[in-house]
Amino acid sequence: MTRYTELSHQLGVTPSAGLETLRRFGLNTEASMSDDINSMGDFSDILVSAHAPAVIGDLRLNIASTDADFRATSIQFINDYIRLAAQYPNVRQINLHFAPKRWHDDAQTVGRDGKYDLFIHSVREIAAFCERNDLELVLENNNSYWTDDIKDAPHEEVDWSQRNENFGMAPEDWHQAAIDVDRHNVALCLDSSHVVTYAHRFPEDQREERVLAFLSRPDLIRHVHWNDNYLYDYRGRKDSHAALDHGTLPTEMHRRIKYLDATLLMEHFHGVDILEGELAFIDSL
């Protein structure tokens, strides 16, 4: 058994836990998309990663956009964020969501459609900027978006072909993106809550295989947003960010995550008592 204090990389928890709690348990942290990167000074010595933005105003950024101007704007917005994050002495990773393949909400007046080859090219461009700042770029698998009109629908009745969707949804596509980018400072970020929203596209008896498939290339994974979620009931169609061992992800998945050669961030905080239970759960794996 490896204790959380003996992991290959120091364990992290979201900044919402507060500096006192993070120090008490010897945890590091990540600037989330909701955190102002300019206001993280109190966490400077334990801030090891930062989550690049996904929106600009009411628009979803799209580095795969077929609109060249909006694609360039999206890349520049992300690089500006990276420049700010790089000022923190211990930040070594930038986490980036996969780009939209389709995003047809009314508010998305530009950048509604993306192409995969443009996505790969843009990731390489951002990775080059990261390299100049001695940073690794990790690409995070996104949610499947079970909006209100389908949140209770039987999975087999949902046609995903025209719905809002990002690249890299399936584990095989997620892995392939890192291979296609083919840059030494680009790897993957696994979000173990997002994988459940994807698995809900399948019959119950296939869902465990689908979530474990994300771990079939552990060599590509360098960062984890470690959350639980509900694999077998409709709560799992939301990005639940449940406490570890409070959802129904397979214990085997948690065990494999623990032993990845990757930074591990519990991307939630539900109170000190719950955190203590989670740390004990990690130690038991």
Write a structural description:
The mean pLDDT is 97. The chain is α/β, with parallel strands linked by helices and 285 residues long. The radius of gyration is 18 Å and the shape is globular. It is 32% helix and 15% strand. Helix 2 (68-85) packs parallel to helix 3.
Write the layout of secondary structure elements.
Blueprint: E1 12-13, H1 19-25, E2 29-31, E3 47-51, E4 55-56, E5 59-60, H2 68-85, E6 93-97, E7 100-102, H3 116-132, E8 136-140, E9 165-166, H4 171-181, E10 186-191, H5 194-199, H6 204-213, E11 221-225, H7 251-258, E12 263-266, H8 272-284
Parallel strand pairs: 1-12, 2-3, 3-6, 6-8, 8-10, 10-11, 11-12
Antiparallel strand pairs: 4-5, 7-9
Helix pairs in contact: 2-3
Could you write a compact summary of the structure shown?
This protein has helices spanning 19-25, 68-85, 116-132, 171-181, 194-199, 204-213, 251-258, 272-284, and strands at residues 12-13, 29-31, 47-51, 55-56, 59-60, 93-97, 100-102, 136-140, 165-166, 186-191, 221-225, 263-266. It is of the alpha/beta class.
Radius of gyration over C-alpha positions, nearest whole angstrom: 18 Å
SSE series:
EHEEEEHEEHEEHEHHEHEH
Q: Which class best fits the helix and strand makeup?
A: alpha/beta
Spatial arrangement of strands, main beta sheet = 1-12-11-10-8-6-3-2
Characterize the largest beta sheet: strand count, sense, and whether it forms a barrel.
8 strands, parallel
Rough outline? globular
Uncertain segments: none
